[in-house]
Specification:
The protein has 492 residues and is an alpha/beta fold. It is built from 14 helices and 23 strands. Strand 21 and strand 22 form a beta hairpin.
Length: 492
């Protein structure tokens, strides 16, 4: 059967209510920092009354993951229970809005749609108090064979291991998936879930699961040990792939007797970790669904940067097919970035809003900064790559060459002359600003030279194409490196 979905997720359909708080608030309310506690309707009402101003968003762990898959351009489906009420209708609308199939019938009578009251402290720890409501009414009858059998991966939310009927739904999904030659993934969700259902989870994992997602606390709780490495090894012996996150230390992926360590991308300040594990699973499963080998699973990145002058979001997949969506407000610049994506073989999304009422400088330079940061982030320490790349690009009367070294020692040699001050509406002096910003923030040493050429358009475009082709070579995985940084120093 042809796969209609990359990922089908089965989980709790919950509307998240997220507010900021301090540690004193958690103490007053008797909340254990960083935990997830189940509450009844009365407690939900009393806690909501004392929370700070909040934002509401459709969520739930597995729903967040399938939403992440959709954001990467994947096809997702969700199976979960909501009530036939206002929040249930909001949840259904939100799933449809992101392009996710959600056809599970609503609960006509009984408890209301679930909600999770999430209090976030300044250190970005989230403490969740969850009223499950209609979630626990999910039954095996809600598992649609047409969805599970058509999904490359079915992803099960560990929180649903509590209600016995939901476990039967998991068993049905696993049988359907394996019968259709598909794979089953599960997330352990929470160490308290593991403590409550250790024996049952171990049995289900060993007999029904192909992929397990967990964090360090969960995997250690599963095997009742404080030895992280031993716990990962034990899990890897039971499943095809074990993917274990460990906060600021990144993650460890164990499969086929090999262990891959993936570093966390450093940020200046962590604002909120809500859903971080969910999005990790989204990127991982999307990569698997696209046939990516494990060493290159992390080669996507998104960077958002806001200043008083520009608001920019860039997402890149270094192992894409050259598909791009570009919006900078500058037509010729959009054309150049589309050419960069196409000839680099990168999937690229760029959304830039800049102060174009002043001029184009900030928009062009800042987009180059964020694109460079995104490539640097996707390269994850420059491990396992070819590092060097070079390209000659002819365009009619013009010939341009580019050589690049992904050395993490940024430099730009620019030998490009334009015979006109503008091409389209864009100042030609801004092309150097872009390449400089990109090189400095990517960590690349770039030598770009137009050997000869008269047409301004051709000179500019051949530069972007040459950079793209050279970068394409440099970021390729080199199997001879053994996954290490290509340097005698051992690090770049």
């Amino acid at each position: 059967m042809t796969a209609l979905y990359d990922v089908a997720a089965i989980g709790n359909a919950i509307v998240d209510v997220i507010a900021q708080c301090d540690d004193a608030f958690l103490a007053r309310e008797g909340l254990v920092k960083g935990s997830m506690a189940l509450i009844d309707p009365a407690r939900a009402a009393s806690l909501y009354d004392v929370m700070a101003a909040a934002i509401e968003a459709s969520g739930g762990s597995a729903a967040n993951t399938v939403a992440g898959v959709a954001s990467f351009g994947g096809k997702g489906a969700f199976i979960g229970k909501v009530a036939d009420d206002q929040l249930g209708n909001v949840f259904r609308h939100d799933m449809k809005a992101i392009g996710c199939a959600f056809t599970t019938p609503s609960l006509a009578e009984g408890p209301a749609t679930a909600q999770s009251l999430i209090n976030v402290t300044p250190d970005a720890q989230r403490t969740m108090s969850t009223y499950l409501g209609a979630c626990v009414e999910l039954t095996s009858a809600d598992v649609d064979p047409a969805i599970i059998e058509a999904a490359r991966y079915s992803y099960l939310e560990g929180y649903l291991f509590d209600p016995p009927e939901a476990r039967r739904a998991f068993a049905k999904a696993a049988a359907l998936a394996h019968g259709a030659g598909r794979q089953i993934a599960i997330t352990l969700s929470d160490s308290f879930v593991v403590e409550r259902h250790r024996a049952g989870l171990l049995g289900f994992i060993e007999t029904q699961c192909d992929i397990v997602f967990a964090n360090a606390a969960e995997v250690c709780a599963l095997f009742e040990t404080d030895d992280f490495d031993a716990a990962v090894k034990a899990l890897s012996e039971k499943v095809t792939i074990a993917a274990v996150t460990r906060s600021e230390r990144g993650s460890v992926v164990a499969a086929g007797g090999q262990v891959h360590e993936i570093s966390a991308y450093p940020v200046e300040k962590v604002v909120d970790t809500t859903g971080a594990g969910d999005q990790y699973a989204a990127g991982f499963l999307f990569g698997l669904s696209q046939g990516r080998p494990l060493p290159v699973m992390a080669r996507t990145a998104e960077v958002v940067r806001e200043t008083k002058e520009t608001q920019i979001r860039v997402w890149i997949d270094l192992d894409g097919t050259g598909v791009s969506t570009i919006s900078t407000g500058i037509g010729f610049y959009d054309h150049m970035l589309e050419s960069f994506a196409r000839h680099g073989g990168f999937d690229l999304k760029v959304e830039t809003k800049g102060d174009l009422h002043i001029d184009m400088h900030h928009t062009v330079e800042d987009t180059g900064i964020v694109l460079g940061l995104a490539v640097n982030k996707a390269l994850d320490g420059f491990k396992g790559i070819r590092r060097f790349g070079a390209a000659y690009i002819p365009m009619d009367e013009t010939l341009t060459r580019c050589a690049i070294d992904l050395s993490n020692r940024p430099y730009l040699i620019w030998k490009v002359d334009f015979k006109r001050p503008k091409v389209g509406e864009m100042d030609t002096e801004l092309f150097k600003e872009f390449h400089h910003a990109f090189a400095m923030n990517c960590g690349a040493c770039v030598h770009l030279e137009t050997l000869y050429g008269d047409n301004t358009h051709h000179v500019a475009e051949s530069g972007f194409k040459a950079l793209a082709r050279a970068l394409r070579q440099a970021v390729e995985i080199d199997p001879k490196t053994g996954g290490l940084a290509p340097s005698t120093k051992g690090v770049l």
